[in-house]
Design brief:
This protein is of the alpha/beta class. Helix content is about 40%, strand content about 20%.
């Protein structure tokens, strides 16, 4: 039989160890990755610099056509077309073909799919090596669509994958509103 004081003593040792580790552990800045410098233009021909944009932005990242449905679920779930308080951009990440003609063909396909001026104003295609983009942004892979909250320095403050989910959306809203990040 154990003495009565063994359990409170064990609890105190565990709490003390937790306190020591919380003080001694290195602090993280809350940054989950960083976008590479992305300079481009939206398909309505407005120049855009994402990394030094000046505001927190919600970026809907897709890597293939099949992920458009997930991006659309976030647009409708967050009511992005109606809610002007959230700065957002749809960023299809396209492997850079390295040829201006082939890039123009890819842009034409995007223009054909996103025909309305409203869709084009929030569309910023990124022509880059996908693997480099994934690694730099701290993403798992290109198998999912991602929604990122990015600050003015291109740092990723929040990240979720897949289709719209209200719990994930709430976490993104809180990060967009936070002032201490």
């Amino acid at each position: 039989m154990k003495p009565v004081w063994t359990y409170p003593l064990t609890w105190c040792v565990v709490v003390a160890a937790a306190l020591v580790l919380s003080i001694a552990a290195p602090r993280e800045s809350g940054v989950m990755g960083r976008l590479p410098n992305v300079v481009g233009q939206t398909l309505d021909l407005k120049p855009t610099v994402v990394k030094n944009g000046g505001v927190r932005i919600l970026a809907l990242i897709t890597f293939n056509r099949g992920q458009r449905k997930d991006a659309e679920s976030w647009i409708s779930g967050l009511r992005l077309h109606q809610d002007q308080s959230i700065a957002w951009v749809r960023m299809p990440v396209v492997n850079d073909p390295g040829d201006p003609t082939r890039r123009a063909l890819a842009e034409d396909r995007l223009l054909a799919h996103y025909a309305s001026p409203q869709d084009r104003s929030n569309l910023l295609p990124v022509f880059v090596d996908r693997d480099t983009f994934v690694q730099s942004a701290g993403l798992r892979d290109t198998d999912s669509a991602y929604v990122l909250v990015i600050n003015r320095n291109g740092e990723i403050l929040a990240r979720v994958a897949g289709e719209f989910d209200e719990d994930k959306a709430q976490a993104l809203r809180e990060t967009l509103r936070a002032t201490d990040l």
